[in-house]
Every structure is written in structure tokens, then in C-alpha cells.
Specification:
This protein has three domains: 172 residues, 3-Layer(aba) Sandwich (Rossmann fold); 67 residues, no CATH class; 123 residues, Elongation Factor Tu (Ef-tu), domain 3 (Beta Barrel), CATH 2.40.30.30. It is globular. α8 packs antiparallel against α9. 30% of the residues lie in helices and 28% in strands. By secondary structure, it is of the alpha/beta class. The chain contains eleven helices and 16 strands.
Length: 377
């Protein structure tokens, strides 16, 4: 897979590459944060159509996420975030998205730095560049995709333009999954109070109960297969529901650093991630999952907590991620970049009366982790 990084100029213009004058391109575009099943459906369709028409498959990947750029500008007098500012709401790093896009068989990815000047270009201007420079024959979009100035380039407007010009075709993919869900507006992470994987609060609710819940929480309708829904689920400890949408365990990555080593003193040494963690960190709690280092993958009980320290990079309080590998061997991972994958929520963070009670609970956490991460579970 060929990867090209593109940065718009001050006027928002991009110097698009030329692939082959004798070969057309099938294109899609977006942030693809999380690379969930909806994203996968769109990109698989791009690859399928490219094979059918002997064309290039092209994904235009926006980085940073448009929502992050516009949100930052709204809070900072129209200024854009720089590369030092971390998007703590991003589900996955760009590198993780690129790995998963490559696994789907895409020919070219154009990573475009998303700027306010680039966002101000009309969708008509943008599509003109894609047809003229990339040789786009087909644009593939999800059902509620929208791009260009003020997000005016929705499916209906793009379809009308395609029909009027005859220069390219629009292919719309059903990326909604099992329908819509209700998500509280401006939700905040909330640690579950009970032990075990949290359930959907609306799972067995009547229509009247759903309406009351939606009104109380100012909930809005959102397609189930969406990055926002995955973020909401992870922010409430609902790992298994999030993983079902992602089609794979949610994961974060970071470098293992020396911690306070309190776990070692009670027989539970942990691998602690440093401050620059890639990927969305679920709400505080203890989780079952895996620790991955290269080709090695160990079951792990994972603890997440929040420090009172404020991080200028993320604009949030610092988070602590510690993983206890369930293995008979001592593993020295200091300085390694590792991957932490989540399989399920075990319990909230609680204060124990003493070290004996803590050790007993940690032993239970290990046994539950073994059960959840067993193949076939």
C-alpha cells in the first residue's frame, strides 16, 4: 500500500498526486476513527469496485479528526491545534488506521492534514480536484457522510452533482449496522458502580421508558455503527458492546515505563504505560484483556485510574494504565512500545481496607480475566 502525506497550503489547496492517466480511481474519504464495521464496509466496497473496473483503490484519510480541529478552534479563538496537541478523544492513532486499511487491500492512502482553510473549500471544488487530479471514476460514501464547507457535500448533493456532470459515479454503502441508538448529548465518562460488564440501560425498556430516559439525558439519535457510539460505550465501561461494533478488541498503545512498583511488593508486578498513549482510554476501572508485544500476546488484568495532574497536551487529567500479565515467566518490557487490548469490564476502582483484601480481589480479577480471555469465550 502506498501512503502519501499531504499538507494544504494557506489557502487550503492540496497538491494532489497523479497516479496513471490510463487508469481511473475509486475513492472514499473520511477520518475513519476506530475503523469500525461501518468504515470497513465502505473501504471493502472501494476495493471491490476497484477490482471490478481495473482501477486504483484510494482512501483519503483526514488527520487530525475534523471534529477535533473545529472543536479546538471554537475554544481557542479560531486557532488550529498544532502537532503537540493530542486528540484524547480519538479512538485510534493514524498508524493503527493505516494498518487496518492496508489489511483490507487498499492501493493508495492519501493522509491529508485537516486544516480550517482546507475545510472552507466547497465540496464541488473538492470533487473537481479529485476527478481532475486523481482521475476519480467512483466516489464511495456511507449513508450520512458529509464534507466540504459547512458539510454541504452530503449524499444527496453529491448524487445530484454526479448525475448532472456525468464525470463520476456515486456509490452509497449501507454503513448504519443494526440501526440507531440514543446517546446522551455531551456525555462524560462515568465509571460503572457494579462489578461485571455493564448492560445497556435501555435493553428491556418500554417505549415510554426510552422516551423518559432520552429526555432526562438529552439523548440524540445516532447510528449504532459510529465512532461516537463506540466512544460513549468505552466511556461507560461497555467494552464488549464497543468491540462488537469495532469488529476487534479496542486497543491502546504506549511505551512501558517505570511506575511506583507498588504492585511488585504484593506479588502483582505491572507494565505501566507512559503519558503519551495512543488511542481512546476507557473509563476508570479494572478490565480483562491482553498485553501485546510484537508476536507475544499475554492475558492481562488491566487497571485504569486518573491522576489529579492536569496535562496541557490533552487538556485532561493524566491517566494511569497498568497491566498485570498472567504468565509464569518474568517479562522485562521497559522501553518497549506495547499494545493493550480490552476484552471486558471487571470492576470499578475501589479502596480496600488493607493489602490482604486487595490481594484477594486481585486474585479474583486474574481468574476472571483467564475465563474471559480463554479462546472461544
Amino acid at each position: 500500500m502506498n501512503i502519501t502525506h499531504l499538507t494544504p497550503d494557506a489557502q487550503g489547496e492540496v497538491e494532489w498526486p497523479s497516479f496513471d492517466n490510463d487508469k481511473k480511481a475509486v475513492v472514499t474519504l473520511g477520518a475513519f476513527d476506530g475503523m469500525h464495521l461501518g468504515h470497513q464496509a465502505v473501504i471493502k466496497r472501494v476495493v471491490e469496485l476497484a477490482h471490478q473496473h481495473d482501477s486504483f483503490s484510494v482512501v483519503i484519510l483526514f488527520d487530525p479528526r475534523p471534529a477535533f480541529v473545529h472543536g479546538w478552534a471554537a475554544k481557542h479563538d479560531g486557532q488550529e491545534p498544532d502537532e503537540e496537541n493530542i486528540d484524547a478523544e480519538a479512538l485510534t492513532s493514524v498508524q493503527e488506521r493505516l494498518r487496518r486499511i492496508e489489511a483490507l487491500g487498499v492501493d493508495h492512502v492519501l493522509v491529508v492534514r485537516y486544516t480550517l482553510a482546507f475545510a472552507a473549500k466547497s465540496y464541488i471544488f473538492f470533487l473537481g480536484r479529485l476527478t481532475g487530479k486523481l482521475g476519480m471514476r467512483t466516489l464511495v460514501l456511507g449513508q450520512d457522510a458529509a464534507f466540504g464547507k459547512n458539510r454541504e457535500g452530503d449524499v444527496q448533493h453529491v448524487a445530484n452533482l454526479a448525475a448532472a456532470t456525468g464525470v463520476f459515479e456515486l456509490d452509497v454503502v449501507d454503513d448504519r449496522g443494526p440501526g440507531e441508538v440514543r446517546i446522551p448529548r455531551d456525555f462524560k465518562p462515568e465509571m460503572p458502580a457494579e462489578w461485571g460488564e455493564p448492560s445497556d440501560p435501555l435493553a428491556n425498556a418500554t417505549k415510554a421508558e426510552r422516551r423518559a430516559w432520552s429526555k432526562k439525558h438529552q439523548a440524540k439519535a445516532m447510528r449504532a455503527w459510529s465512532s461516537t457510539n463506540v466512544r460513549y460505550l468505552l466511556a461507560h465501561g461497555r467494552i464488549q458492546d464497543a468491540n462488537a461494533i469495532l469488529g476487534a478488541p479496542h486497543a491502546i498503545e504506549g511505551e512501558v515505563v517505570h511506575g511506583e512498583e507498588r504492585g511488585r511488593t504484593i506479588g502483582f508486578p505491572t507494565a505501566n504505560l507512559g503519558g503519551d498513549i495512543e488511542g481512546y482510554i476507557p473509563v476508570d476501572g479494572v478490565y480483562a484483556g491482553w498485553l501485546v508485544d510484537g508476536d507475544n500476546r499475554w492475558p492481562a488484568a488491566i487497571s485504569i485510574g486518573t491522576k489529579p495532574t492536569f496535562s496541557e497536551k490533552t487538556g485532561l487529567h493524566e491517566r494511569v494504565v497498568e497491566s498485570y500479565c498472567i504468565t509464569d515467566d518474568w517479562i522485562d518490557l521497559y522501553g518497549h512500545k506495547v499494545r493493550v487490548e480490552f476484552a471486558g469490564f471487571l470492576r470499578p476502582q475501589v479502596k480496600f481496607d488493607g493489602p490482604d483484601q486487595l490481594v484477594d480481589e486481585l486474585k479474583r480479577n486474574v481468574e476472571e480475566t483467564k475465563r474471559i480471555t480463554e479462546p472461544g469465550e
